[in-house]
Write a structure and sequence with these properties.
- The protein folds into 2 domains: 9-89; 95-220, Immunoglobulin-like (Sandwich).
- A hairpin with a 2-residue loop joins β11 (204-207) and β12.
- With 222 residues, it is an alpha+beta fold.
- Helices cover 32% and strands 32% of the residues.
- The strands form 3 sheets. A 5-stranded antiparallel beta sheet has the order 7-4-9-2-13, with no helix packed on it. A 4-stranded mixed beta sheet has the order 1-10-11-12, with helices on one face.
């Protein structure tokens, strides 16, 4: 079910570029006024040196080009923001996999997705630990030991079987080989996109209360 779509009319970068363009325009107007005044008040018997005049005209041309470049940059940034947002909207209703290790539990106890973890090589022992936002362990168990990708679906209860409170929960994967040496692991989250938000200037996908940057999406999951 689609929850919401929130768009921003301009990004921070676009706003900054627009401010720079306004500043350049003001500088250009001031330069033109000063140049005109200089030409009007120059001594006919001792006019402005042609070399200096040429240099001033070159400066004017450079300012004009900068203003035009900034205007075009504003247009490009605006188009990129719109394209990114439109791309994000296309993810609504789809199941995605994204870089990350944190999921949210909603007020009704629903976990906003599941985790995937990958072992670089086979392990002797794998421990999966879910911690709350304060770092307290709420659940712990054994994980798969074979190399490759594995999944963990959590029901939102602690080790005693009691429902946890709403909030963010992080999966910590600890894997060791037969010698007790650590094995590299990678964690990702999987869930269905319910909304998209670009009000902060970047496109963010929402899986329930869990937020992920569009750039962190690694694949569309089946």
């Amino acid at each position: 079910m689609v929850d919401s779509v929130t768009s921003s009319t301009s990004s921070t970068s676009s706003t900054t570029s627009s401010s720079s363009s306004t500043s350049l325009s003001a500088s250009y107007e001031m330069f033109l006024t000063l140049l005109t005044t200089q030409l009007q008040t120059q001594n006919p018997l001792d006019p402005v040196d042609s070399t200096e005049f040429t240099s001033q005209l070159a400066t004017y041309a450079s300012l004009e080009q900068q203003i035009e470049t900034n205007d075009k940059l504003d247009s490009v940034l605006s188009s990129m923001d719109s394209l990114s947002f439109s791309t994000g909207v296309g993810y609504i209703g789809l199941t995605v996999e994204a870089e990350g290790d944190t999921l949210s539990v909603d007020s009704d106890g629903t976990v906003d997705g599941s985790w995937k973890y990958e072992l670089d090589s086979a392990a002797e022992d794998v421990t999966l630990t879910i911690v709350d936002s304060s770092g307290n362990t709420v659940w712990s168990g054994s994980g798969e030991t074979s190399a490759g990708s594995h999944s963990l679906t959590w029901d939102g209860t602690d080790s005693d079987g009691d429902a946890v409170s709403s909030g963010e929960y992080t999966l910590v994967v600890t894997a060791t080989d037969a010698d007790g040496d650590s094995i590299d692991t990678t964690t990702s989250i999987v869930g269905t996109v319910t909304a998209v938000d670009s009000s902060s200037g970047s496109t963010v996908l929402e899986i329930g209360d869990t937020e992920i940057d569009l750039s962190d999406v690694t694949r569309l999951a089946a």
